[in-house]
Write a structure and sequence with these properties.
single chain; 192 residues; three-stranded parallel sheet; 51% helix
Length: 192
Amino acid sequence: YLSTEKIFEAFGVPVPTLREYQNEIESDFSKFYIQHGIANFDLNINNTIRTRVFEENWDKVELHGPVVTNRILLCLKELGLRLAIVSAELPEILARRMEQFQLGDVFDYVRGGTWPKNAALGEVLVHFGVKPEETFYIDDTYEGISIAKEHGMKTFGFTEGYNTRERIIDAKPTYVVSSLEEAFFVLDRALR
């Protein structure tokens, strides 16, 4: 959200509230900026400002419960599950975050810069040779959950991230969770 504030300030347009941002932002974020008054939205300017804000605040970003997150991901691997990340995040930022949090060995497939996620989720299914109904997908956006459901995947709506809890619930995910730990317990029960 801090990068969004800086983008609106750069264009001299009033900044939407955090709640507006969390309720309205989608992977085609240009719509959000245009809708809120940046008629001459420029993706290059957006990415430049966003990257600068990320760099200035790089060390302030943490995983949700880093010790628990790493332990859970390793438990999932030990259960024989294959893990993938399909993210709209810029690939270079995603790669650096993966390195920062030492997640490179945990995930079997990583793809950034995916928006919309339709094709990328299809590629993951082909990559792993699995049927959609054999997969679990976790996302903190209405849009991501909706796309995964269209593919036939079981979905986890994560309520402590990008979109508001209400927006996540509106997507009607299979499961609603507020932590990776909670998702692990639900997944563990579902696999038994």
